């Protein structure tokens, strides 16, 4: 082999060979497609895991319907305030309530209806105060 022939062979690289360039191009495309598929698969697995976690965290409607409320405490377990202040506050609340109204239909009127009937706000006032009503 002559020196000139070996020099020309050493100068040839893969970039000079069109077949090699096509192979590299195909490998790059294949790698890109593989990476995209791997990323898609990873995102799908993460989404599936999150979905399963959310479904398992919240109770199903049948579990909600099947649950029964805990019984009310009776006897010594029931702690109730029986001081005169508590009794007066309870009486005031009961007086303010309008038990003729269905609480499921209009809870505001059920809880405050009688108070609103007894304490009419004058048209020239924007608020009501028992202190102002004595003036």
Q: How many distinct domains?
A: 2
The count of strands amounts to: 0
How does the overall form come out from the CA principal axes?
A: elongated
Structural class: mainly alpha
What is the average per-residue confidence, as pLDDT, rounded to a whole number?
79
**End-to-end distance, in Å?**
124 Å
Query: Portion of residues in helices?
Result: 55-70%
Report strand %.
under 5%
Q: Which sequence of SSEs, written as H and E, runs from N to C?
A: HHHHHH
Oligomer: single chain
Number of helices: 6
Radius of gyration: 41 Å
List low-confidence stretches. none
- Major β-sheet, in short? none
InterPro entries: MetalloPept_cat_dom_sf (IPR024079), Peptidase_M13 (IPR000718), Peptidase_M13_N (IPR008753)
Keywords: Membrane, Transmembrane, Transmembrane helix
GO cellular component, one term: plasma membrane
Pfam family, one: Peptidase_M13_N
Pick out its properties.
135 residues, mainly alpha, 2 domains, 62% helix, 0% strand, elongated
Written account of the structure:
By secondary structure, the chain is mostly helical. The chain folds into two domains: 3-64; 75-133, no CATH class. Helix content is 62%, strand content 0%. It has helices at residues 3-11, 18-57, 61-66, 84-96, 107-118, 130-133. The longest helix is centred in the N-terminal third of the chain and has 40 residues, at 18-57. The model has no long low-confidence stretch (mean pLDDT 79).
């Amino acid at each position: 082999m002559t020196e000139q022939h070996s020099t020309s062979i050493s100068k040839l690289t893969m970039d000079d060979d069109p077949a090699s360039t096509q192979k590299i191009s195909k490998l790059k495309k294949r790698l890109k497609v593989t990476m995209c598929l791997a990323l898609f698969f990873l995102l799908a697995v993460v989404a599936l895991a999150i979905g399963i976690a959310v479904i398992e965290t919240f109770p199903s409607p049948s579990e909600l319907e099947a649950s029964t409320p805990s019984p009310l405490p009776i006897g010594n377990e029931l702690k109730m305030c029986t001081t005169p202040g508590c009794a007066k506050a309870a009486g005031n609340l009961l007086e303010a309530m309008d038990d003729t109204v269905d609480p499921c239909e209009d809870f505001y009127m059920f809880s405050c209806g009688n108070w609103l009937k007894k304490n009419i706000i004058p048209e020239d006032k924007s608020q009501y105060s028992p202190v102002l009503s004595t003036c």
